[in-house]
Hints:
The complex is a heterodimer. Chain A has 28 helices and 25 strands. Chain A is α+β, with helices and mostly antiparallel strands. Chain A folds into four domains: 80 residues, no CATH class; 316 residues, no CATH class; 227 residues, no CATH class; 178 residues, no CATH class. In chain A, the strands form three sheets. In chain A, strands 1, 2, 3, 4, 5, 6, 7, 8, 9, 10, 11, 12, 13 and 14 form a 14-stranded mixed sheet that branches. Chain B is α+β, with helices and mostly antiparallel strands. Chain B has one domain: Winged helix-like DNA-binding domain superfamily/Winged helix DNA-binding domain (Arc Repressor Mutant, subunit A, Orthogonal Bundle), CATH 1.10.10. Chain B has a three-stranded antiparallel sheet with strand order 1-3-2. In chain B, helix 1 packs across helix 4. At the A-B interface, helix 2 and helix 4 of A face helix 1, helix 3 and strand 3 of B.
Amino acid sequence: xxxxxxxxxxxxxxxxxxxxKFDREKAIESWKQSLRKHQSFEEGDLAELEDxxxxxxxxxxxxxxxxxxxxxxxxxxxxxxxxxxxxSFMEERKVVHGYPAMFTNFLKVGFxxxxxxxxxxxxxxxxxxxxxxxxxxxxxxxxxxLSFDRFHExxxxxxxxxxxxxxASGEIHYPIIPPALGPEMQANFSEIxxxxxxxxxxxxxxxxxxxxxxxxxVFFAEHDFLEMFSFPLKTGNLDGLLTEPNTVVITDEIAVxxxxxxxxxxxxxxxxxxxxxxxxGVLEDLPDNSHFRFDFLIxxxxxxxxxxxxxxxxxxxxxxxLTYVQLEPNVLKATVEDKAKALxxxxxxxxxxxxxxxxxxxxxxxxxxxxxxxxPQGGLFRINDIQNxxxxxxxxxxxxxxxxFNYFNILTALMYTRTKEIGVRKIxxxxxxxxxxxxxxxxxxxxxxxxVISLVLVWGIAGLGYLPPVHTGAMLWVLGLMIGLCASxxxxxxxYVGSSLASQGILSLLKNKLSTSQSRxxxxxxxxxxxxxxxxxxxxxxxxxxxxxxxxNDKDLxxxxxxxxxxxxxxxxxxAKRELFRNLATANPAIKAVSFGPALxxxxxxxxxxxxxxxxxxxxxxxxxxxxxxxDKVIGLEMVQGRFFDKAIAADxxxxxxxxxxxxxxxxFDSPLGRRVYFAGAQEFRILGVFKDFHYQSMHHEIxxxxxxxxxxxxxxVLVKYEAGAGDTEAVKSIATHWEETFPEGDLPFEYKxxxxxxxxxxxxxxxxxxxxxxFTGLAIFVAVMGMYGFSAVSAHQKIKQxxxxxxxxxxxxxxxxxxxxxxxxxxxxxxxxxxPVVYYLMNEWLAGFAYxxxxxxxxxxxxxxxxxxxxxxxxxxxxxxxxxxxPARLLRNE
Amino acid sequence: xxxKELTGASTIPIILSVLSQxxxxxxxxxxxxxxxxxxxxxxxxxxxxxxxxxxDKQGLITAxxxxxxxxxxxxYYSITEQGRAALADKKEEWVDMIRVMTQLWDLKLT
Lengths: 895, 110
């Protein structure tokens, strides 16, 4: 309204003005100022309206009214509704320009409308920004995950050779295969263009002059590796690379780490105090979407089977080499697989009793298609579960749906506040098309503002490193998606709201009574129901995922993982120092025990096992660790039958074997103690004891048959158990001191992890996933709450007259809250209940993927329903506070 | 008198008729219309000015700013040739309409 208090005397006839002196010019000036706030008036319009105003004043003057009364008369008679006046000027401006001018005008009106309904607009834009940003973020992430290994030029023809073993104890897909298979395939099959083998070097010390580091990503690779895969060289020549013994290719990062600014070419890096390697090439750092993780590629002919290695490089039994083949174009992989199986069987005389398939796994499938493939060295290559990507994709879809409905709801509700404006436009001759057009422009404008903001936001987040780097491909995807989303959001909503308003009669618009208002509100409620449902489902799903992960953390692994430090202890020359370190460390009262052996990082070796009296047909695939005499003390291994290895009994280290309960059960003997079994290359072992099952790999896998043998050869790691009271920092400090005493030359760097941290790493993917899920769930709920808040605000606005009258009649807060809140609480409750069966079904499937999982207790669902209920109540309470603060008299007059 | 719809339909012919008698400004046009209709047509300001502006853009009328002796600015409107042609068309339509109505309702027009 005009911003002037019109006083109470405007309807009375001429009378003397007794009040203080009235400054008419000042009043006119301030009236003009109030018009200027509306951008619809141009200066010319103001001058014309002022002329009109003065003419009117003169007319009242001549009738004998006082200056104040005349002014108030004009205000009341000619300018009762400046908003309406402004709208009609704005509407007029849109008529009879060319289309571009009309469009500009729509934009102006659009901006004005956004400004006018600023709180709803902000809510709308915020909801959309959050929704869009989530989806863009997820798209960038998914794009990255789906682009793995796509940058190799011959990628379509490259396969990894896996063995698929079907044994009585279960099926295993193995990506590391015997060293003889690859070269024999190349020699015999014309379909194969290239073969390359890789041998993992395990964590190892690399040294250049005084700089030595523990390196985990070291491989021996054949020359064809760099021909087959497109890892660009920064320095060096591809021809003849890795064909010479004792040469190495390193990544740029390593070049800087070892050589700083000077050129690494021709320089020497020492491998494990054994071999001097000449640097012959530097690779660009690996793209972040490569399943390979390597820093060093040593020429394959530098590889020597170490002491204790049972098989030569021509072995058909030693499962130890990654092998990749590149087929000639248009060759069917099944043909090669069949021939390879025949070749494998022909050369492996013990294979008659195994059912083994040779599988060619397409390079492009490795990253996302390897969850059921053993990954024996843990971090040898990167993999992800396609299931996680699907879940994220679904979450993105849900967020988009929520954001869309959210927008739709607020907009539809807002429609009710704009009926008068549209009515005036119709009187002024706005056509149906023009009203639709205007609504389209307004909705699209809002959506595009949100789109651009979210784009900038996501770019920023990616720039800060919280998202994968945004490559051109991902950028195009996101841009396309933004345009598509904005266009469809704007179009659908604009058309719906515009045509609904345009189809209304002028009178019903002016009276603010939309003919189908009831049904339209029902549509909004149905949508709200859906939104609540999705939010409730997301909350419940998050609760379940998080609980499952906590379950991992809390579940008893079957051994004591606390106060154990794991450090790399590798290399033949450190073997001699082993006992020195053990003696120095165990002399310290703060250190309980030291054991050299497995790193307990989820990886293990595997071998078939069968009792001597069984036929060759029956073998049990058994995982095993090579351990020393103190392994049981370090991890608190519990013996169920028999005994642990004994230093005093020499035979223990030759043919002693300990088995776990699962293996004991599968063997089925009354007492397995003293039984003889063939194990690890058909040697004969004697079972000394049965130990309690423990989780030697991640909890995705069930505990399988497992054995421990004595291993006094070169270890990989050392496990140090320290006293709980000592404190981690103190313990690490004293262990470091003993380390320095053992290696005064610094020839073995002290690089360690706490066992608990290392075990956490086994569930890193789930943790990342849970974090993402929590984040997106939070945001989805936020968007849904915004929608609910907006909708309840508008619906309260709708009921404001009713509320005010009730308040005037003496209604208190409880009655009022019933008017505003009942429907919403009921909706949220029904929606949450509807979500339960869907979540139950989905999460049952998800949990089935874990060997050990929490049950789907009622608590998740009850908590979900409660959270939705509480959020709804709080939102409504805020809304109610607003309504209760409004003065009924003011509002009723407004109406 | 006059429903919104009827007002909407008759505004332009009425303005054109007033201006066909000579140039004029907004306030005077409103006064004149009120006078002719014995106060039955009381156009409020929001209605008239935007309509005048639109007619200007459509080429039915032209507008011109003048400075009055007391220094005030006033915008005068006058009818164009196109406006006169449009008025002739409208006049025909309205006369036909009135004839039909009077015959149907058997009214005598004084």
